[in-house]
Amino acid sequence: MNKKEVKALEMKTKENDLEAIKTLAQAYFNGDGVKKSKGKAIELYTQGAELGDGECAYILGDYYERGLIVRQDYNKSRHFYMIAAKAHHPKATYKMGYYLEYGYGIYKDEKEAQKYYEEAKKLGYHA
């Protein structure tokens, strides 16, 4: 990615363009055309998640669940998985079921967990 493309993406992120946000976040994560910055990647993924983007929210949920780049935090992980599940992200929907079944970052509720598992399956996710 060249400097002109980066500038164009930066302008679009200010307009809350989700594709630009995801592309630029990935560029910062990998150092593609910009100085590698995991912090800037997290900031952009958070922007996308706050706008309701399922993929951005799923990525953050995964990072917080596994302690990648950020300190492991099941409450934050659950928060981002919930945003992603509301956006019909199949794997995040499954993860919400798992969190509810085992009480990660949330109370245990096997009945509610089953609903998430069933919804994940309808969305095409098969564990």
| Uncertain ranges | none
Q: Can you write the helix and strand succession as a string?
A: HHHHHHH
- What is the typical, i.e. mean, pLDDT? 96
The largest sheet, given as strand count, sense and whether it forms a barrel, is: none
Number of domains: 2
* Name given to the CATH homologous superfamily of the largest domain: Tetratricopeptide repeat domain
Q: What is the number of beta strands? A: 0
What share of residues are in beta strands? under 5%
How does CATH name the architecture of the largest domain?
Answer: Alpha Horseshoe
Assign the structural class, choosing from mainly alpha, mainly beta, alpha/beta, alpha+beta, or little secondary structure: mainly alpha
CATH class identity of the largest domain: Mainly Alpha
Rough shape? elongated
Provide the CATH topology of the largest domain: Serine Threonine Protein Phosphatase 5, Tetratricopeptide repeat
Organism: Intestinibaculum porci
Pfam family, one: Sel1
Protein name: Beta-lactamase
InterPro entries: Mitotic_Regulator, Sel1-like, TPR-like_helical_dom_sf
Structural key phrases:
Serine Threonine Protein Phosphatase 5, Tetratricopeptide repeat; mainly alpha; 2 domains; single chain; 127 residues
How would you describe the overall organization of this protein?
- It is a single chain.
- The chain is mainly alpha-helical and 127 residues long.
- It folds into two domains: 1-51, no CATH class; 54-127, Tetratricopeptide repeat domain (Serine Threonine Protein Phosphatase 5, Tetratricopeptide repeat, Alpha Horseshoe).
- The chain is built from seven helices and no strands.
- It has helices at residues 3-14, 18-30, 38-50, 54-66, 74-86, 90-102, 110-122.
- Helix 1 (3-14) crosses helix 2 and helix 2 runs antiparallel to helix 3.
- The longest helix is centred in the first third of the chain and has 13 residues, at 18-30.
- The N and C termini lie far apart (36 Å).
- The model has no long low-confidence stretch (mean pLDDT 96).
- This is Beta-lactamase.
